Amino acid sequence: MELLYIVIPVFNRWHFTRACLKSLAEQSDKRFKTIVVDHGSTDDTSGQIAQLFPDVIVLKGDETMWWAAAVNMGIEYALQQKATYVLTLNNDTIAGPDYVAQLFKAIENAPANSLIGSTSIDANTHQVTYCGEKLSWFAETSSPNIKHVTAEPGNGLLEVTHFPGRGLLIPAAVFKKIGLFDDKGFPHYMADYEFTLRAAKSGSALFCAWNARIITYPEASGANEIKASKTVNGYKQYLFGIKGGGNLPLFYRYALRHCPVYALPSHLILGTARRLIGYWI
Fold first, then answer.
1. Who's near 126: CB < 8 A, 6+ residues apart?
2. For helices 264-278 and 232-240, what crossing angle results, to 10°?
3. Could you point out which of 74, 79, 83, 129 has its C-alpha 20 to 30 Å from the C-alpha of 7?
4. Checking phi first, is residue 203 left (phi over 0); if not, alpha (psi -120 to 50) or beta?
5. CB-based contacts of 121, cutoff 8 Å, min separation 6
6. Which phi and psi (to 5°) does residue 133 adopt?
7. Where residue 89 falls among pLDDT bands split at 50, 70, 90?
8. Counting Cβ atoms within 10 Å, is residue 268 exposed (0-12), middle (13-18) or buried (19+)?
9. 204: Cβ–Cβ under 8 A, 6 or more apart, which residues?
């Protein structure tokens, strides 16, 4: 029997977590268990979950953990429980009522050991904002699927080259083959992209499931909050902070690890330039 474990890392923001867990409790397909990794919340997140969502498994981390380490804690627990699949999900998302059902449908349509991402819907505009993208190493750009796809593809799956961890379904076999997220090299941002690139190199196909939809809040992103500040200190955080969306050391580590040699000079030059000016645009 297929068994899906959903892993949600949480650090405060109980209002988001409550809405997310409520949406999971209302799923039409119940073939899953939910794990919340509470890594240092001070708003009684764990207590509230125990009271309102007693079936949710809560694992306690600490405030030194970032996204990758917290997710890895949940994944390790799920694998110990013989999970067939693990879904990484952020707490600032709301799943549609058939979300899990659509993920299982996508599993049936995809090749074995494929990674399957989720389509994002903006909570404010109710429009599709993300359904995967294809990376051009030479140009250091990605071509979003949303620019080219306006209707459901034949099998419901869109091919991608990488995917964020916000609604990413991963077969247990992939973890056994390539390991977990690199929480040392990429403690927060880019850990998901780096993992999916490793998975692709190991032979896994990557897709976005057009009908597996989650509502997201773009303004809730820590990286977007830093970029919106437009201050000198915010610029430093953007380029070097652990939550900075333009973190240069992480970008260089990521590029040197995965970029093809022929594209590396162009990728590094263009990527550095975009990050240096991107904060102010």
1. none
2. 150
3. 129
4. left
5. 127, 128, 129, 213, 214, 215, 216
6. -160, 170
7. very high
8. middle
9. 113, 114, 115, 171, 174
**Among the ranges given (16-30, 105-119, 238-252), the one the predictor scored with the smallest mean pLDDT:** 238-252
pLDDT at position 81: 94
Amino acid at position 161, single letter: T
Task: Give the residue among 251, 99, 233 at the shortest CA–CA distance from 186.
Answer: 251
Alpha carbon distance 46, 40 (integer Å): 10
Is 0.85 surpassed by the pTM of this model? yes
Of the candidates 165, 158, 92, 161, which has an alpha carbon nearest to the alpha carbon of residue 122? 92
> Which tokens is 63 given?
């405030």
Q: Please determine, for residue 2, whether its predicted confidence score (pLDDT) is greater than 70.
A: no
| Cα–Cα distance measured from residue 145 to residue 258, given in angstroms and rounded to the nearest whole number | 22
Q: Give mean pLDDT, residues 22-27.
A: 96
Number of neighbours of residue 60 by Cβ within 10 angstroms: 12
Distance CA 133, CA 147 (A): 9
- Closest to 215 (Cα-Cα) out of 95, 87, 88: 95
Q: What are phi and psi of 102, to 5 degrees?
A: -70, -35
